[in-house]
Structures are given as structure tokens and as C-alpha cells.
Amino acid sequence: MTQASAPMKAKHQRMTLVVLALLAIVAAGLIAVWALRNQANYFYLPEEMAATPPQVGQPVRLGGMVQAGSLETLADGVTVSFVVTGNEASAIPVRYSGILPDLFVEGSGVVAEGSLQQDGTFLATNLLAKHDENYVPKELEGLDGHKAEQKVAETTLGL
Amino acid sequence: MLVEIGHAALWLAAALAILQMVSGALALRDAPGEPSPYALYARPAAVVQALLAAVAFATLLHAFAVTDLSVKLVATNSHSMKPFLYKLTGTWGNHEGSMLLWVTVLALSGGLLAFAERRLPERTMSATLAVQGFVALGFYTFLLLSSNPFERLPGPVAEGIGLNPLLQDIGLAVHPPTLYVGYVGLSVAFSLAMGALITREVNPNFAKVMRPWVLGAWVFLTFGITAGSYWAYYELGWGGWWFWDPVENASLMPWLAATALLHSVSVLAARDALRTWTIMLGVVAFSMSMLGTFLVRSGVLTSVHAFAVDPERGTLLLVLLGLYIGGSLAIFALRASSIAEGKRFTATSREGALVVNNVMLCAILAIVLLGTLYPLLTEAFDVRVSVGPPYFNPASAIFAIPMFMVMAVGPLLRWKDDSPARIGPELALLGAIALVAVALVAFLGDYPVLPTLGLALAAALAVAALLPLKGRRLTRVPTATWGMVMAHFGVAVALFGMASESAFTQERLAAIAPGEIEEISGWTVQLESVDPVSGPNWTAMEARLSVSRDGGEPVILRPQARNFWSPAQATSESSLLTRWDGQLYAVIGDAAGVGADGKLRWQLRVWWKPFVTFIWYGGLLIAFGGVLAIVGRVQVDLRRRKAVRVGAERRDEKAALAGSRPAAPEPAE
């Protein structure tokens, strides 16, 4: 061991440590902020997806209400298609292969993870429905009012 | 009647927490070295408080065991038809009960500290107990004023509402209590750090007292997270083992901080370096466990753990959080400059490597923290955001990968100062292993970058973890060193499991009629039948699957789609077949209409997850390594005490033989 790399002065060393730690934490913060800003578009409501669609194939989440009467099981028995609606008229067709979450029903909220396809359907790889009576995906809070309106519209329009 | 006794015991415990706090604090007014008349009360107050909290918890446990439906908490969370085990575990399957468990564990560990810890100077101990009393008082206040678990109903109800079926599992008996012990152990470490800071006793002696608490807390956190991950894996039926769910993050963040603290407190104990840093990490670790409690208990985040959502209580918890974190940071700011410089070391020493990894752990902590809180932040501006694996995985990997590399090398370096050239052959070996692993994975197929790197690092780490044993007589290696080797090897094993699961998992999804066959990765899965079955508080459709591997002996799997009636909820019970090299994971879904041949079809989802079990084996190894480290430290401590005692006896004998009076009495230990 040469003299040059002998232990530094203690004060000096403490400063180096603090600077190193701060640099790493700041770097972590910057990376986080940068990545999170890119993520800001990660969650879409149906009207947002209709207005500014994400790139085809980009993994995003789509959250909204499962339109009543739109749920349909395809011939293979495991693929379902349904329509997700938001606060406005826009509706996004969704296709999902898999076992539906336990509380997945028409007229309730859902968050679909997946990506938009070339043909405008949303191919979901995972569905987050509510797990129990109290659970509403955070992103969907406030959509319940819309659901009520829609119910009213559905039940009164035909009359 | 019992319930009222429990309620009263809780109030008394709160009163004792005040006594403990005041007595500890008053003792600090006297000059150092002088025995303080006030200090007398702090220890007994902590011990009796622990007993009272235990009584309070026992009465609530009893109320749940006998399903006392005149108690509001039991009526809203239990059901007389529930299996007995879930009646008991249901005690903490709700907000009030789990807070009571938290407070009880806090009181018990405070009592243990007061009862058993005799190595610290009395002044430091008084300050520590005062801080511990202050922390406990906050939680008693919270519990008694806003979440009283002992509230009676005006009259008993006929039947309880029941427990969320997802919680009706053995996991609830294991996961929350172990995590709480971990959280609370960090509170003791925090109190010790504050006590040492206030009385200017930040030195190796203090670190030796703090270390077992940090190690213990960390072992329980590790075990709790591992158990929770496995529980989510088999219970939710999604086949995933980590969801970056806010509440999972709330348990990961204290673990990351505790891991950093554990290593820095060891440096302080062994080398008298990193004094300020250790204290800071003590504050951060406890802040993270407080933040975790806040996130879970206040209901600001919705998640799969939302069973305890309760927004009104958030404010009080937030006040507590601010008080503890703000107060400790203020003390830290006032006293940090008084901490003397520790021993020096170079960048290429074991301390240097530990510092790098401490910083990396803190950076990962920052990444997870920001990702967890970001949705809350944007919500203030009315923007809804989900933060998920696309953020967490790469962002944390940026710091995790260098951390794993340094972790492989660190234990090979010498304390204080070392030259990288000395461990050149080992470095070359580890680099070669990683490169071969990457080449091998690339040869096998086209896999994503992160799992490939994970596999390579796991291979190198596994070898690196064992290298510190090279050239040593295995029988003479200290137990604590075995602990380190075990824990580091566990990290490699867990990393291998994670990378393997995400790279090699095969999935098959189909709608098949009884009698039909599906194939997946050498497994043949035949649906034999689907029949209705029933349990104590549920009915289900149960599939009978006959699975065999490469034409071997068939095994029967029985996944179920369950319907609980109180509360009304459906869950899917997965069925797992464990082999040494992975798990077959089967879930049954809904009836999927009639097939082409006119038979009723059922949705079936099957995964083959190679080496997925290694994730949890690794977690257990890590926790076991921690246990070994504690055992090793206790052994050394006992041996040293014995040596001191024998030495003192010999000196006395010599003095007696020499005919002179014994020298001044040896200070005990």
C-alpha cells in the first residue's frame, strides 16, 4: 500500500461520505422523477385513450366501468371481450384471455393492464377488479356517480 | 366483563407510558454519573406496561375466541361459524385489532429492553426508555381515542359479519404478527439511537447493544415479507409473488433501511466507524416503519390490503408521524455535530464496500418511496396515475445491480484498508461465472435483460457468498460469520428464484371439458371432474386434475372456486404441486359454456414456474442467517462475560494469596 492511498483525514472522509451519499440519493431521486414523468401517461381513462392514444404495444393501464351488456365470452371459452366506458361517451373495446377476477361483473369498475392494439382494441394481460365489497381501484374513485347516471339513462331511455 | 378489564388495562398502560417518559426524562436533568432518584421508575413502568398491554390483547383474543357478539369489533369482523383458528387470527385481521397487536408488541419489546438490558450507562438507558415511552404513548393515544377495540354494542347482535375470506388463511396467523415485531423492533433501535444521541454515547459499546435489536427486527421483517409474498402468491390466484403494491412497498422500505442499518451498526460495533451514519439510518428505519403504518392504516392508498381502510384516522397518524420524524430529525440536527469522528478507512476496504451498499440501499429506498408516494402527489393536482412494475423494476435495478456486485466483493476485503489486486483471482473467477451465465442464458433462448442479469448475478453471488469460508477451518468459523455467509447465499438463492420465475414461466389457459388433456412443459394435465363441495362457511366448485410429468405417476390436484357466504365473496383457491425444480400452479375459473362436443367446459389456468420456490427458500435462508448472527453475538458476549468474571476471580485469589487486600473492585463486565 503506497502512502497516497493511506486513510484520508477523518473530517475529509466524512465530507466525502456525505457527498457520495447525497449524490447517490439525488441520482435516485432524479431517476425516479424522470421515470415517473414518463409514467404519468401510464394510466388512461377511456376518454383519454380515445383522445390521445398511447403507442401500440406500450404497456399501460386502462380504467373505467364495464359497460352493461357488453361482456361476451368468445368461442375458445377463455377469451372475453367487453367495453370499458368512462365519464364521457368514449368506449374502448377490451379483450382478455384468462380467468376473470372473482368480483368482475358488468357495471362495475375495472382496471385493465395491457396495451392498445393496431385495430383499436385494448389487449389486457391482467384485470384488477375489486377484491371485496370495499375495494375500488384508487384510479376509479369518483366514477361511481357516473355509473349511477348511466344506470338511470339505461333504465329510462327505453321508456 | 373481561373486555372492560382489557380496556382498563390499556388505559393503565398508557398512564405508565407517561410515567416511563417523565421519569426517564427527569433523570437526564441530573448530572452524569450521579444516580438519579427519578430514574428508578422508568424500568418498572416499562415492564408493568408490557404486562398490562399483554392482558389487554389477551382479553380481545378471548372475545374473538368465544365470538362475543356484544363487542362491536367482534360483531363486525367475526362470525360464529368461522373455523377456530381464523377466529383467533381474526383478532388482528381488522384495523383496531391490528393496532392493538402493534401496541402490545411495542410494549412487550419495551419491557424486554427495560428488564434485560444492563450494559448501557444508566443515563443512556433513561433517555432510551423516555423515548420509548413517548413512542408508546402516541400509539396508546391513537388506539384509545380513535380506534378503541373494546367498544361494546348497545346490545349483542345475532350474528357477526365475518372476516374477509382472503384473510381466512394460515397466512394471517404468520404474516402480520411477524411484520409487526419487525416494525416494532426498529422502534427500539430508534429509541436506543436517540438515547445514545441525547446522552452523547454513540460508540461501539452502544452499537453492541443496538445490534441484536436491529438484527432481530430485520429477521422478523425478512420472514414477514417472505411469508406475505408466498401468501399473496397462493391466495390471490394470480400466480404473482410481488405486485409492487403500495402496502407491500410499505413493508419493503423499512426492510431496506433495516438492512442498511444492520450493516452500519456492525461496522460501528466492530470498527468504531460510521457513527453519524448509523444514527441517521436508525431514524430513517423507524421513520419508514412509521410511514408504513401510516400508509396501511390511514387508507390514503387503496390496495389489496384495503381491509383496514379508514380515512378519518389518517390525520392523527399523520400527526404522530410528523411528531416522531420531525422530533428525531431535530434532535439529530442539534446533536450530530457532537458525535466524535469515528475511525478512518479507505474506499477499498470492507467498510468502504459496506458504505457503498448502504448508499445503494438508500437509493433503492428513495426509488420505492417516490414511486409509492407519487400517485398521492399527483392526485393533489387531480391527475390519476398508476405506478407499477414498468417503473419499479428498471429504476430499482439501476441501483440493485451495482449493489449486488459490491456485495459479492465486500466480504472478501479486509477491514480498514485493502488493495483490490490482492483479491484479483477471486474477482476474475466471479466475473467469469457471471459471463458464462449470461452466455448460457442467451444460448438457451431470447430472454429479457433484467432476468438474464439476475441469473448471472445470482450465480456469481452464490459462489461469492461461500468464498469467505475458503482456506478456513470450517469448525473454527465463528457462528456470526456463518450467519453472514448464509444470508448472502440466501440473497443469491432468492435472486435466482425471481429471475428464473420471470424468465422461464410457462402458462397454459384453456376451456376444457372433463376428460380432456392439456400439456405444459412436460406436464400432462387431465381434468377428471368438476364437483360441488362445501366447507364450514363456504361452498365451492372443485376441479379434480390428474397431473403427471413425462408420463410418470399421476398426482391429483384440487383447485377450487369458492363462494363464501358471510361476507358474500368469491375467491379462487389455487392448487400447487411442488417439485425441487419448480411449482405447478393450477386455478379453476368459471364454467365456459358448452364445447363443440356438447360437454360443459371449465376455464383452467395452469402455470409451470421453474425454481419459483427458491424465492422463499432464499428469504428463509436470509432470515436464518440473521438468527445465526444473533446467536453468534450472544455466544461471544457470554464468553466475554465469563472471561471477565474468571479473570476477576483469579486476580482476587492472587491478591488474597499475596496477603494484601484485594484491589479496587473490578467493574462488573
Kindly summarize this structure in a few lines:
Chain A is α+β, with helices and mostly antiparallel strands. Chain A has helices spanning 10-39, 46-51, 144-157, and strands spanning 43-44, 60-66, 72-73, 79-85, 91-97, 109-116, 122-128.
Describe the structure.
The complex is a heterodimer of chains A (159) and B (669). Chain A has helices at residues 10-39, 46-51, 144-157; strands at 43-44, 60-66, 72-73, 79-85, 91-97, 109-116, 122-128. Chain A has 159 residues and is an alpha+beta fold. Chain A has a 5-stranded mixed beta barrel. In chain A, β4 (79-85) and β5 (91-97) form a beta hairpin. Mean pLDDT of chain A is 72; it is low at 1-7, 131-136 and 144-159. Chain B is α+β, with helices and mostly antiparallel strands and 669 residues long. Chain B has 17 helices and 10 strands. In chain B, β6 and β7 form a beta hairpin. The interface between A and B is large, with 54 and 65 residues.
Q: Radius of gyration of chain B from the CA trace?
A: 28 Å
Mean pLDDT level of chain B: 85
Helix/strand/pairing class of chain B, anyone? alpha+beta
Most extensive interface, chain pair and sizes: A-B, 54 and 65 residues
End-to-end Cα distance of chain A, whole Å, is 92 Å
Q: Can you list the strand order of the major beta sheet of chain A?
A: 2-4-5-7-6
Range of helix content of chain A: 25-40%
Q: Work out the strand percent of chain B.
A: 5-15%
Task: Identify the quaternary structure here.
Answer: heterodimer
Rg of chain A, rounded, reads 24 Å
Element-by-element helix/strand order of chain B: HHHHHHHHHHHHHHHHEEEEEEEEEEH
Order of helices and strands of chain A: HEHEEEEEEH
Shape of chain A: elongated
Count all strands of chain A and give the number: 7
Largest sheet of chain A: 5 strands, mixed, barrel
Average pLDDT level of chain A: 72
Number of helices of chain A: 3
Terminal Cα separation of chain B, in Å?
48 Å
| Global outline of chain B | globular
Which structural class do the helices and strands of chain A define? alpha+beta
